[in-house]
Amino acid sequence: MAVEHPRFARVYPAVAARADKRGAAGHRQRLVEGLAGRVVEVGAGNGRNFVHYPPGVTEVVAIEPEPTLRALAEGAETAVPVRVLDGVAEALPFADGELDAAVVSLVLCSVPDQGRALAEIRRVLRPGGALRFYEHVIPQRQPKRGLFRAADATGLWPRLAAGCHLARDTAGAIVAAGFEIERCERIEFRSAAVEPRLSYLLGSAHR
After folding, report:
1. What confidence score (pLDDT) does residue 137 get?
2. CA 153 to CA 147: how far, in whole Å?
3. What share of the chain is helix, strand, coil (3-state, %, to 5)?
4. pTM of the model
């Protein structure tokens, strides 16, 4: 199931580390706080979230299709037991209702089929199971809203950023997939001084 993005995988660890220093580490901590039981992290990247999981989590099964990032995740610092597996969001290796929670972090912006990925995540969660999300989304205001839509439509940004789309209505997709959103905060964040300020959603929902 490997999905190779070698150029992106080479630069992403440095980009993520820089973003964490500018405040993303706090976003990651808030993303997973209060979770408990068995958790799937879909699209775990190089494992930047692992150190933030609270002690109530008994296991994180991290799914990452990109080989270079998956290898880095296998060596990442962890706060709870973590297994790293090859896989994709649209075909998770779990039985129906097997897991207590799912975490998606900068993933739903890049999956080829957002609806299918969310349906699969919902399938593997128990009734009442938690979905935590931290995602690029479409800005609320023009002209950036139009610019990001154009970047998506031309394929420019997705080609540069391993399929990432900056103009998706991810909150709407989460609701359409059958989740109930409990908390949803919009964050405007620049991961480096020379990069554009992007729009993120940080929140939680349940099955």
Report:
1. 82
2. 10
3. 35, 30, 40
4. 0.89
